[in-house]
C-alpha cells in the first residue's frame, strides 16, 4: 500500500477527566512537585488557612511553648520561689504567667538560672504576641467578597441565538463599584501541527462591566459563530471536559479595596432549555427586595408560540 493510500489515523479520544476546577474556581487535585513548602512561605500559608486551623495552631503553639519552659524550669531544681519543688503544675502555670507578663506575685524566680530562663521566655512571649496579633489582624482586615453564584448555568435561546447564562448576587448590603466579570472556557485545542493541549478561551459577554453592582447580575454569553462553544451541546461539553470559569473583580465601597470572587461550572452544572426564576420579591410593607435563596431556581423554558389570528367574517 502506497503512502497516499494509508488511511489517516483517527483523532485521539477524549479522556473522561475529573473536574480540574472546583466550584470555587480553584484547581483541584493538582500536585506541584518542587513547590515552595508552607514553612518557606509561612505567611502565605497562614493567610490561606481557615480560621479554625489558625486558632488551633496558635493554641497548640502556645501550649507547647509553655510545656517546654515548664520542663526547663524543673531542670533548674528549686528555682521558683513559693512553688512546690518538682511540681510540674506549678512550673507550667509560672511559665504561663511569665509569658503573658501577668505577674501575680505569688511565684517568682529565685536563682540565676531561673532569672535567665525568665528573660528568654519574656522575649519568646513578646515575639509570639506580636506574631499572633499580626496574623489575627491581617486575616480580619483582608477584604473578602461576599458574592453568591448560581449553582447551575443555563443554555437557552435568546432572540434566536443560544446563550450561556448564569447569575451572581452581592450578599452584602453595600455596592461593588466598577465591577467586571471575565468568563473563560477551559477546553482542549489542537494546533495545526497536531499538538493537543488544554487552554483557556475567553467568552464574550453581552455586558462584562457593571458600574454599581448592588443586587444581582445575570451574565450572558452569546454562543454565535465567534464563540469557542459554537455548535457544542451539553453532552459534547461533557465529552470534551469543558469547564467554564467566571472571575468577578471590583472595588468594595465599604473597605475601599479591590475584591475578587470566582466560580467554575462543569458540563454537569449546565441545564438546557431553561430560564431563571425572578429573584425580586415584594415585602409585606410594599417594598421590593432581593431573595438570594432563589438565585439557582430555574424553570423549563417554554417558547412563546404566537397563534395566527383568524379574522371572523363580518356580519352583513
Automatic annotation (TrEMBL):
Its main location: membrane. The keyword Transmembrane applies. Keywords: Ion channel, Ion transport, Membrane, Potassium, Potassium transport, Transmembrane, Transmembrane helix, Transport, Voltage-gated channel. It is found in: Membrane. Pfam families: Ion_trans_2, IRK_C. One of its GO terms (cellular component) is monoatomic ion channel complex. GO terms for molecular function: inward rectifier potassium channel activity. It is a multi-pass membrane protein. Residues 71-138 form the Potassium channel domain. The chain crosses the membrane at residues 51-75, 87-106, 112-137. SUPFAM superfamilies: E set domains, Voltage-gated potassium channels. One of its GO terms (biological process) is potassium ion import across plasma membrane. The keyword Ion transport applies. Residues 148-294 form the Inward rectifier potassium channel C-terminal domain. This is Inward rectifier potassium channel. The lineage of its organism: Bacteria, Pseudomonadati, Myxococcota, Polyangia, Polyangiales.
Amino acid at each position: 500500500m502506497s503512502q497516499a493510500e494509508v488511511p489517516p489515523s483517527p483523532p485521539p479520544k477524549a479522556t473522561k477527566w475529573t473536574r480540574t476546577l472546583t466550584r470555587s474556581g480553584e484547581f483541584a487535585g493538582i500536585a506541584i512537585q518542587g513547590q515552595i513548602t508552607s514553612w518557606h512561605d509561612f505567611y502565605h500559608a497562614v493567610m490561606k488557612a481557615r480560621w479554625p486551623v489558625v486558632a488551633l495552631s496558635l493554641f497548640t503553639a502556645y501550649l507547647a511553648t509553655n510545656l517546654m519552659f515548664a520542663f526547663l524550669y524543673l531542670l533548674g531544681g528549686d528555682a521558683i520561689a513559693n512553688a512546690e519543688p518538682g511540681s510540674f503544675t506549678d512550673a507550667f502555670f509560672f511559665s504561663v504567667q511569665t509569658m503573658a507578663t501577668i505577674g501575680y506575685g505569688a511565684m517568682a524566680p529565685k536563682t540565676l538560672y531561673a532569672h535567665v530562663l525568665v528573660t528568654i521566655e519574656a522575649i519568646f512571649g513578646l515575639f509570639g504576641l506580636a506574631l499572633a496579633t499580626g496574623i489575627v489582624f491581617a486575616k480580619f482586615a483582608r477584604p473578602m467578597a461576599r458574592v453568591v453564584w448560581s449553582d447551575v448555568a443555563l443554555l437557552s435561546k435568546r432572540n434566536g441565538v443560544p446563550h450561556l447564562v448564569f447569575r451572581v448576587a452581592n450578599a452584602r448590603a453595600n455596592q461593588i463599584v466598577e465591577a467586571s466579570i471575565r468568563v473563560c472556557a477551559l477546553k482542549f485545542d489542537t494546533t495545526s501541527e497536531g499538538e493537543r493541549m488544554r487552554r483557556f478561551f475567553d467568552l464574550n459577554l453581552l455586558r462584562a462591566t457593571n458600574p454599581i453592582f448592588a443586587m444581582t447580575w445575570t451574565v450572558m454569553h452569546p454562543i454565535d459563530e465567534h464563540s469557542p462553544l459554537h455548535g457544542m451541546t451539553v453532552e459534547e461539553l461533557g465529552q470534551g471536559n469543558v469547564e467554564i470559569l467566571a472571575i468577578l473583580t471590583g472595588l468594595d465601597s465599604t473597605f475601599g479595596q479591590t475584591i475578587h470572587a470566582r466560580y467554575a461550572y462543569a458540563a454537569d452544572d449546565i441545564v438546557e432549555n431553561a430560564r431563571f426564576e425572578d429573584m425580586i420579591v415584594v415585602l409585606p410593607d410594599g417594598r421590593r427586595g432581593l431573595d438570594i435563596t432563589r438565585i439557582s431556581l430555574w424553570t423549563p423554558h417554554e417558547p412563546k408560540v404566537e397563534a395566527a389570528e383568524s379574522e371572523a367574517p363580518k356580519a352583513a
